[in-house]
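Materials and Methods. Structural model of U-box domain-containing protein. The 407-residue sequence of U-box domain-containing protein from Pisum sativum was retrieved and submitted for structure prediction as follows.
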Amino acid sequence: MNEAQTEITIPHLFRCPISLDLLEDPVTLTTGQTYDRSSIEKWISAGNFTCPVTMQKLHDLSFVPNHTLRHLINQWLQLGSQFHHPCNNNISATIDYLATIKHTLESHDSSIETKLKALEKISVLSDEYCSFRKSCFQQLSFLALLLELVFGLSDSQLSENYYMEFMELALSCIVKLLPIVNLEPLNIIKDESKLKKFIFLFEKGTSSMKTSLCLVIDYSTTATQTEQVCEILGNSQKLVHEIVQVVVNKNCDNLSEAAIKALSALCSLESNKESLVKGGAIDGIITYISRCDTTRDKNLAPLAMTTMMKLLVLESGKEALVNHVNGIETLVKMVFKVCNQECSESAVGILSIVCSDFGSAREVAIGAGVLSQLLFLLQSQCGTKTKTKARMLLKLLRSKWTEESMH
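The predicted structure was written out as tokens:
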């Protein structure tokens, strides 16, 4: 071990349980315990066929390299020689501190109050970005642990007085970890019992919990290994219905925005679209964009309308829009939006789709003043793409109007 390595104490996590020295070539047994390759090879060669830490019998003597831990150790060694590095305020203590927090959360002996304090510490630490700390969260499997705590425990395992508070804080910590760790642990939600707990929390949880769950849905679409999670969530009619109810809730802007992001994320998979339409996504989006003049709601109106357009690839999606009592009128009002050209372009595009297929949609749109709205739009400073779509819609309406008046 060189001088730079001896400047700081080796964290417990980085020591081989057999030699107690720094792990140079960490390998993991089938029991989940990690040792230095040379040490465990000597142990097995001596005729020991048990795991040194757990004493479990080793039916499989194979082991796999622990690349994540090796990377973490290398990073620790590099930072150890940089005495003014912002993350190097006793790196060993940081690692052991996080390991202690994890143990507190895992232990059945820890009280709910103690676990709440542990979650508060995670929340603070995850806010302070540090690439080394990020690696620690990953190596110590904090995301998997928190997901298991939220979706794995039964209601009776937590004191009723602290239940919602614990779940709310745990979900908040999960959301903070999602951008900085591998998302593979999200696959826990594919389990039927975990899915039921997810939906239960969405139904019964606080606004903060629902916001966090919406963000979990949003992140499930950002990695290929969690695509199945997105598909399972999107095909739950009960969950989609709950998300739509949140979207139409005008009294909670932050939550409505999170729900719009969740619907958009679910809509990224073709297999989810029919479920979204059946769950009332079109109706929910129409209600949402009808409030777009409010300061906050207009920020995600373009995303909401883009999501609606994706759903119009289905005949059921078009019918849901056309049959909505205020659907077409709401879109006509969005055609000329000087403050938001994205909304204008989307509104024109959506109207072009339904007006091409439904005479009733054309009739309602014309009655709602779409022709004058399009003319105003063409005289505005909107982009070339929007103007091109507006001209095409005008041409469509005129040709259809002429064709229908001749019959």
